[in-house]
Design goal:
Layout: E1 2-3, E2 13-16, E3 24-28, E4 32-40, H1 42-45, E5 52-58, E6 67-74, E7 80-87, E8 96-105, E9 112-121, E10 128-130, E11 142-144, E12 151-152, H2 153-156, E13 165-170, E14 196-198, E15 217-224, E16 227-232, E17 237-238, E18 246-248, E19 250-256, E20 259-260, E21 264-265, E22 269-271, E23 279-282, E24 286-291, E25 295-304, E26 310-318, H3 333-336, E27 343-346, E28 353-358, E29 361-363, E30 376-386, E31 391-398, E32 403-409, E33 422-429, E34 435-441, E35 449-459, E36 470-472, E37 475-482, E38 491-494, E39 497-500, E40 505-513, E41 520-530, E42 537-547, E43 551-556, E44 575-580, E45 590-592, E46 595-597
Parallel strand pairs: 24-42, 27-36, 30-37
Antiparallel strand pairs: 1-17, 2-13, 3-10, 3-14, 4-9, 4-11, 5-8, 5-13, 6-7, 6-9, 11-12, 15-16, 15-19, 18-22, 19-20, 19-21, 23-25, 25-40, 26-39, 26-41, 28-29, 28-31, 31-34, 32-33, 32-35, 35-37, 38-40, 41-42, 43-44, 45-46
């Protein structure tokens, strides 16, 4: 949990909204009187509660002459007029600093409005100074044409600007006597059918005013490892949860309506939470019955009931046959693949792919750093499960614009990606940090087994060859397992590994195939190894019972033997069973010595 102190304003600050530079003026088309103000709500005033408002700065722009009266109000809709101070001797087209006749105590339980009245403005004059916008609607652009109702100028009149108006506040001074404000009367103004407009005046000679404060502390921005993770309210603490073990650097900055303060850092935090995955496998036994020349599918769900990440690997132990030996030998890959000299500058400016998603493999953050070269990554432990004759999509994000890339699969396993092995050629990412998706097709001729997959990028030019030297880009090698996982003809299991977040599940598919099998019972075991320390190995028995696709007769016993001395009788019983599928029809014929007696009996 992070905690900090609220920012302490310095002695004496100017507060306001909008730009610091006054660019133009606003006036009534037909002339007349109106009121302008900036508005501070209670959240704005909270950091300066108890301070004193002593001065106001504003930028009058009258060229034809008019009256200005400084005004201070409190309450919603400027309900309470507490100061009205006529002004004289103002310098037009300049910032004018006015000292209040009576300081005003900042009370953060109510709104504060700081502004002025324009009186006797002539048509064609635009006396109320504005910045270049856009307006902070409802705060920096409040206006009243009748002395009663206030509106945001940007919304009511489409004039998207803030008033050039600032208030100066200082910490409380024991020597200053604060009098209870006297409520004054704001006289109504008649501006029926009068409209506001911008003057488009000549630029002022000194339009800018650099002030050292901003109103409106909205809350705080929290940064973790230089990335914004949350925008909070005015509370001065934050609990960051769900973190992976690691080292973290936190910073906090005050967030105002007008901008963000400088960040303040916390000491380095090394987080090593105690987490433990809990594996659950359902079902714990898989039994399938098939006729010959049939297929079916069942599923095993691997769930994580713990609070840590669960990783698992599945080994299939065939009891009735031996699995095909794996053709994948990662030890041989890196020494023979072309890696050296692929790039001169690589990804130093952000070039290359930073995100990769294809089939079951997602590399969501490909960095520009590596043990050998920053631009190369050995991801051969990530295996794409692909099927020949099937179309897929590859989704990528490039870290730099104008990025081309190619993708190969080393079908012949000669550890060289030639152009006949391209599955995506001249793919192009026009912009950085934008997701692009490309269709790819795996040829039906792709052989079952394990291979390597590579992507390479190039900046502003197509990739012509898998080992050629380019200036900018990156390269990654992955693995491919074509046409499934371990397959001993009758059982096909996938995926064979995975990662499961807390309170999540993975589904493992078991495809059964009785083609070209003799009928009988087939057995296997799924050996599920995981990082669950309580149950690191779970064994799931799998059986396939194959029936023939026709009825089959079973006799017990399959012969009779009688030994009967003398004139006696004897009885024996034969059981006739139907195996396979379908109804069994049978006939029985009894032969006596040299003569034959046939008794056809139809049974069902």
């Amino acid at each position: 949990e992070l905690t900090w102190d609220a920012p302490i304003p310095p002695d004496g600050i100017w507060i306001g909204f909008g730009d610091d530079t006054c660019m133009d003026g606003i006036g009534l088309n037909d002339g007349g009187d109106f009121l302008v103000s900036i508005r501070f709500d209670t959240a704005h005033l909270q950091p300066i509660a108890g301070w004193l408002l002593t001065k106001v700065k504003f930028f009058p722009k009258s060229e034809l002459g008019c009256g200005f009266i400084l005004k201070i109000w409190t309450g919603a809709n400027a309900a309470n007029l507490i100061l009205s101070q006529p002004l004289s001797g103002l310098i037009q087209n300049e910032w004018n600093e006015i000292t209040l006749d009576t300081p005003v105590l900042i009370d953060n339980s109510d709104e504060l409005w700081v502004g002025y009245a324009i009186e006797n403005q002539l048509a064609g004059d635009y006396p109320a100074g504005i910045d270049s916008g856009p307006a902070l609607a409802g705060f920096g652009d409040m206006i009243s044409l009748d002395g009663i109702t206030w509106e945001p100028m940007s919304i009511a009149y489409g004039l998207d600007y803030n008033w050039c108006l600032m208030a100066y506040v200082v910490p409380p001074d024991d020597g200053v006597v604060i009098h209870e404000p006297i409520l004054l009367t704001q006289k109504p103004i008649n501006n029926k059918n009068n409209e506001l407009s911008r003057g488009y005046l000549e630029p002022a000679e000194n339009p800018s005013f650099n002030f050292n404060g901003r109103a409106g502390l909205e809350g705080y921005n929290i940064y973790r490892n230089d990335e914004l993770i949350v925008e909070t309210g005015l509370e001065t603490n934050y609990l960051d949860s769900g973190l992976d073990p690691g080292t973290y650097f936190y910073e906090v900055a005050a967030r105002y309506l007008e901008g963000i303060s400088a960040r303040v850092g916390f000491p380095e935090i090394i987080f090593s939470p105690v987490t433990s995955p809990v594996i659950n496998v359902d079902p714990l036994y898989v039994d399938e019955i098939l006729d010959i020349y049939n297929m079916s599918t069942q599923y095993v769900t691997i769930s994580n009931f713990g609070n840590g990440e669960l990783t698992y690997d599945i080994t299939v132990n065939f009891l009735s046959a031996s699995p095909n030996p794996s053709k994948l030998n990662p030890e041989k890959y890196n020494p023979a693949l072309c890696i050296d000299g692929l790039y001169t500058d690589g990804c130093s400016l952000g070039d290359g792919l930073v995100y990769w998603d294809f089939a079951n493999v997602t590399a969501s953050n490909i960095p520009c750093s590596g043990p050998i070269y920053d631009w190369y990554h050995d991801y051969t432990d990530q295996v794409h499960g692909l099927e020949s004759g099937v179309s897929y999509e590859i989704t990528v994000v490039a870290g730099y614009s104008d990025t081309y890339f190619d993708v190969w699969i080393d079908y012949n396993n000669d550890l060289y990606y030639d152009n006949s092995e391209l599955i995506l050629n001249d793919a192009f990412c026009d912009d950085a940090n934008i997701s692009y998706t490309f269709p790819v097709y795996i040829p039906a001729s792709a052989a079952t087994g394990e291979s390597l997959l590579r992507f390479r990028t190039n900046w502003q030019a197509t990739v012509e060859e898998s080992c050629e030297t380019y200036s900018y880009g990156n390269c990654c090698d992955f693995s491919v397992e074509m046409n499934g996982g371990i397959n001993d003809d009758w059982l096909f299991v996938y995926p064979l590994s995975g990662t499961v977040a807390a309170d999540s599940s993975d589904v493992v598919t078991l495809d059964f195939n009785s083609f070209d099998l003799e009928y009988g019972l087939y057995g296997a075991e799924l050996l599920i190894a995981s990082n669950d320390t309580v149950a690191p190995l779970i064994i799931v028995p799998v059986t396939l019972n194959v029936h023939p696709d026709h009825p089959e007769i079973f006799l017990y016993p399959d012969e009779f033997y009688f030994e009967m001395p003398g004139a006696v009788q004897d009885t024996q019983i034969m059981e006739i069973h139907c195996g396979g599928c379908g109804d069994l029809y049978y006939y029985m014929e009894i032969t006596y010595g040299d003569s034959s007696y046939v008794a056809p009996l139809l049974h069902h």
